Amino acid sequence: MEPKISRTKEEWRKELAPEKFHVLIEKGTEPPFTGKFNKFDREGVYVCAACGQELFRSDEKYDSGSGWPSFWTPISNDKVELRPDNSLGMHRTEVVCSRCGGHLGHVFDDGPQPSRERYCINSLALEFEEGKG
């Protein structure tokens, strides 16, 4: 497991573009169908836009029709942390990067086989490394 990264909000604000800061640190959400990775289909690895940790492979990405990039599993379970999220009057499970704690999105139990999970992830929380994986 990679060493944890701990920064203050102000340190993150200096490092991240405002829209990435809003999603990754303030737990925002980009509008559906607007993210650069929603209909993206190149082969490679999706990494955390804050710290660069590898999170998802293109082989595990699918079109859920939700408007956000969706994956049926992370690269490995130790790359993400799942946390209860009861904001906005809903009961959801938040997905964060295990290395830096950046908000990635949410996971739902309506995905495809074999996992039946849908990791619904903001494009702004990701970068892409082509050809890796």
Explain this structure.
It is a single chain. The protein is mainly beta and 133 residues long. Helices cover 11% and strands 30% of the residues. The chain contains 2 helices and 9 strands; from the N terminus they run ααβββββββββ. The strands form 2 sheets. It has a 6-stranded antiparallel β-sheet, with no helix packed on it. The chain has a 3-stranded antiparallel β-sheet with strand order 2-1-9, with no helix packed on it. The chain is globular. The protein starts with 8 loop residues before the first helix and ends with a strand.
What are the salient characteristics of this protein?
mainly beta; three-stranded antiparallel beta sheet
Mind describing the biggest β-sheet?
A: 6 strands, antiparallel
Alpha plus pi helix count: 2
Strand order of the largest sheet: 3-4-8-7-6-5
Q: Characterize the overall form.
A: globular
Structural class estimated from helices and strands: mainly beta
- Point out poorly predicted stretches: none
Task: Write down the secondary-structure element order.
Answer: HHEEEEEEEEE
Between the first and last Cα atoms, what is the distance in angstroms?
17 Å
Rounded mean pLDDT is 94
Binned, the helix content reads 10-25%
- Radius of gyration equals 14 Å
Strand content: 25-35%
Would you count the extended β strands for me? 9
